Amino acid sequence: MRLVCGISLIADELATQSTGPHQVVVLAHYASVVLALLLIAGFWTPIAATLTFIVGMWHAFTGQQDLWACTLIASLGAALALLGPGAWSIDARLFGWKQIEIRARKP
Fold it and tell me: What number of H helices and E strands is found in the chain?
């Protein structure tokens, strides 16, 4: 899911590249590509996914890009923020899996 979200974000940004010299727009495109690369690598996944959700919703509400592509990116970002990075990620290698032990109730 990280790969789909990252590749979709990069493809969406490449499809809507700004040709004007406005620096804020160019910086926003670069930030989206950096978020996509973080998601693909699985590094800082909850933060990158949350920011991806915000970027997707921003593009959807401002009407700058295709509504369906923005909705896809936003929903994948929200799902990744809630699910986490997965086993094949840098986050899993750095921090490991968290195991929650549920003990039986005492009567």
Answer: 5, 0
Structure tokens at 85: 């990075």
- Residues 26-65: pLDDT tens digits? 777 788 889 889 888 888 888 999 999 998 888 888 876 7
Domain assignment present for residue 107? The answer is no
Amino acid of residue 45 = T
Which residue, chain included where needed, has tokens 């990158």? 48
12 class by beta-carbon count within 10 Å (0-12 exposed, 13-18 middle, 19+ buried): buried
Which residue range is the domain that position 43 belongs to? 2-95
Number of domains in the chain: 1
Q: Which of 15, 3, 82, 90 is nearest to 46 (CA)?
A: 82
Instruction: State the Cα–Cα distance between residues 42 and 24, nearest whole angstrom.
Output: 27
Could you give the CA distance from residue 55 to residue 35 in angstroms, rounded to a whole number? 10
Which residue has 């620096």 as its token pair? 23
